Amino acid sequence: MSGENKKVLIIGGGLAGLTAAKRLVDRGFQVRVLEKRPIFGGKVSAWKDEEGDWIESGTHCFFGAYGVLYDLMKEIGTYHAVLWKDHRLTYTLDGGSSFTFDTWDLPSPLHLLPAIIKNGYFTFGEMAAFSKSLVPLALKRDKYPPTQDHLTFAQWADQKKFGRRLMDKMFRPMALALKFIPPEEISAKIILDVTETFYRIPDSSCMGFLKGSPQEYLHQPLVDYAKKRGAQFQNGSVVEELLFDGQKIRGVQLRNGEILDADYYLSALPIHNLHKIMPDSLRKHDRFFGNLERLEGVPVISVQIWYDREITSEDNVLFSPDGIIPVYANLARTTPDYRTLRGESFEGKTRFEFCVAPARDLMGLTNDEIIQRVDRSVRANFPVSSQGARILKSTVVRIPQSVYAPLPGMEQYRPTQVTPVSNLFIAGGFSQQLYYDSMGGAVMSANLAVEGIVRESMRRTS
Ligand SMILES: Cc1cc2nc3c(=O)[nH]c(=O)nc-3n(C[C@H](O)[C@H](O)[C@H](O)COP(=O)(O)OP(=O)(O)OC[C@H]3O[C@@H](n4cnc5c(N)ncnc54)[C@H](O)[C@@H]3O)c2cc1C
Questions:
Q1: How far apart (Å, rounded) are the C-alpha atoms in residues 302 and 37?
Q2: CA of 53 to the centre of ligand 1 (A)
Q3: Per-residue model confidence (pLDDT) at position 115
Q4: In the 8-state DSSP scheme, what is residue 416?
Q5: Which residue among 43, 235, 302, 445 is best mutated to probe the pocket of ligand 1, counting the most ligand atoms within 8 A of its Cβ?
Q6: Which end of the chain is less congested by CB atoms within 10 angstroms, N or C?
Q7: Which of 275, 249, 239, 277 is nearest to 415 (CA)?
Q8: 133, β-bridge pairs
Q9: pLDDT grade, residue 201 (50/70/90)?
């Protein structure tokens, strides 16, 4: 055991913080997690409303690529709760039509053949022009996307001259679904990285959904696991400031006036919250910390609507390039535990959950206005099956700063988990790792931060 008697204070009980807690108790550290909200889970959190229905921070799809997340879930015994859907991506369009990117069970890149030759929407010419634009990606593989971080994806696509329809109908919802910002804002690197992964690893684009709430299958099992091994968890604990003495972190100041100290400090906060607790002295201490100011969070809105009938029977994630619902799912199909309304069975009806983006201009609207706009998008996408459909319930969750904004040129400012201050570590989706700000990214960032703490602890004792 590397961490015998060493204390670690984890600030933030989202997926990164909870993963780190589990991994640290496994290595023998004494762990205390400080979480400001009454519940754990951060951007993947879910809670029951006063009518007994689960409300989520947002629709969470489990990409096949997130091996580190599935390793974690196997360790806590909840991997069985990931329900893998058919390996295809379906796009719904205004007017009621749709197209689908299917895959075949063949080695890469042949698995993508049906997406190119039989998607039922883009012409062979359009797909051939797109395939040509990917030649550098095929040749240089993961070495290519980092060379394109100075461009937005829209600028990259203009240079490659593949058609407007591909950009508007396929890549716009993809960019909005991935990071809630449009192709005109997102760095080309992100879309190219994802495309390269989908191209190279056949199962990486397969989507799973949890059987029920992430609270039941992810956060609580992580908390229970770490608690059993001695970790302490404190909800309602808001960290106000990291206390920095010019060389090391000497403690954290809580909003209630308490000061807590430890051997190591792990920030598992979103970037905008990390900004708030960093003292000026730390910002000035090293450019590493000063540069964090350049990263910011993206607004997004999550909406759930229960309709009195089945509008789509699709048991999978759906994308829509038209309107304001780039990615959504009928949870009454995808998520068996969510086939309920106010405690009653909700079989055969629709419980949509939507990610509403771009959300910047919508944040000021009332909930009713947001629901009306989402409902308009639904009726435009499903003009026949939605005819006469009544809304039975709706919920709106606004997240003014969610994932970090991967704008061009930002990659260089994403911090490593090991920092220039030897007892301070950083985890979180925005920190440097393969999967950007995602569940896979949160877990991978925690794994890397824990490895850093273990190395530092061994260095001190040797
Ligand atoms: C709407 C939406 C949909 C998404 N969909 C997907 C998806 O389909 N697939 C996917 O992989 N990812 C998805 N993501 C991204 C994913 O949720 C995040 O990348 C991931 O949850 C980040 O985890 P984290 O632990 O780094 O940060 P967070 O989840 O933000 O956790 C940080 C924690 O710190 C706490 N905190 C903040 N300030 C303080 C303070 N001062 N003191 C103490 N505690 C504090 C917060 O309350 C929070 O619990 C989605 C995100 C959103 C918002």
A1: 19
A2: 21
A3: 66
A4: P
A5: 43
A6: C
A7: 275
A8: none
A9: confident
Measure the CA–CA gap between 127 and 460, rounded to whole angstroms: 56
Is residue 332 within 8 Å of 347, Cβ to Cβ?
A: yes
Reduced to 3 states, what is the DSSP secondary structure of residue 116? helix
The residue contributing the CA closest to ligand 1 atom 14 is 438
For the beta carbon of residue 343, count every other beta carbon within 10 angstroms.
9
pLDDT for residue 448: 98
pLDDT above 90 (res 107): no
Helical segments of 50-107, H only? 67-75
pLDDT tens-digit map of 231-241: 999 999 999 99
CA distance 442 to 450: 12
Is residue 171 within 8 A of residue 188, CB to CB? The reply is no
Which residue puts its alpha carbon closest to atom 46 of ligand 1? 42
Cβ of 35 less than 6 Å from ligand 1: yes
R_g of the chain computed on alpha carbons: 22
Give the closest residue to 441 by CA, choosing from 197, 254, 236, 246. Answer: 197
Pick from 88-102, 208-222, 263-277: least confident: 88-102
Compute the distance between CA of residue 89 and CA of residue 102 in angstroms, rounded to an integer. Answer: 7
pLDDT for res 362: 97
First-to-last C-alpha distance (Å) of the chain: 14
Residue tagged 């951007």 (tokens)? 43
Residues 6+ apart with CB under 8 A from 257: none
pLDDT digits over 354-413, tens only?
999 999 999 999 999 999 999 999 999 999 999 999 999 999 999 999 999 999 999 999
81-90, 121-130, 176-185, 231-240: the lowest-pLDDT one = 121-130
Angle (nearest 5°) at CA 393 between 82 and 92: 60
Both tokens assigned to 449 = 């931060």
Q: Which fold has domain 7-36+236-296+406-461?
A: FAD/NAD(P)-binding domain (3.50.50)
- Return the sign of the alpha-carbon dihedral for residues 44, 48, 52, 58: negative
Among the atoms of ligand 1, which is closest to the Cα of residue 19?
25
Give the distance (Å) from ligand 1 centre to CA of residue 44: 6
Across 147-154, average pLDDT? 97
**Pair 180, 299: CB distance under 8 Å:** yes
CATH dotted code for 43-103+206-213+299-400: 3.90.660.20
Query: What pTM, to 2 d.p., does this model score?
Result: 0.96
